[in-house]
Amino acid sequence: MADPSNPVRTCVGCRRRAPVTELLRVVVRGGGLTPDPRRRLPGRGASLHPTAECLQAAVRRRAFPRALRSSATLETGALEELVSARSS
User: Fold this and answer.
1) Which pLDDT value is given to residue 39?
2) Where is coiled-coil annotated (predicted)?
3) Tens digit of each residue's pLDDT (9 = 90 or more) over 37-65
4) Where are the domains of the chain?
5) CA distance 25 to 53
């Protein structure tokens, strides 16, 4: 039985399911991907493990535009900075 106080989401990079507490929410703002660690920004979000491997897999598979229903090319700079800072 799932714990309703800790929902489960799927990482767009590795496609594994994990509790939201282990994943980083990402939204589109200003034409780029914006990390939403507090999970409070408005709009459709995608979940990602905050690791370089999952980020690279998501970019390679073009998972962000599909998950966020965006037809535009999305800038990943802010997201890459956050992930590299967390892994260092």
Assistant:
1) 95
2) none
3) 999 999 999 999 999 999 999 999 999 99
4) 8-87
5) 16
According to DSSP, the residues that pair with 34 across neighbouring strands are: 27
DSSP string covering the chain: ---TTS-EEEBTTT--EEEGGGSEEEEEETTEEEEETTS-SSS-EEEE-SSHHHHHHHHHTTHHHHHTT--S--B-HHHHHHHHHHH-
Determine how β-strand 45-48 pairs with β-strand 32-36: unpaired
- The reported pLDDT for the residue numbered 73 is 86
The CATH number of 8-87 is: 3.30.1230.10
Q: Does residue 5 carry a pLDDT above 90?
A: no
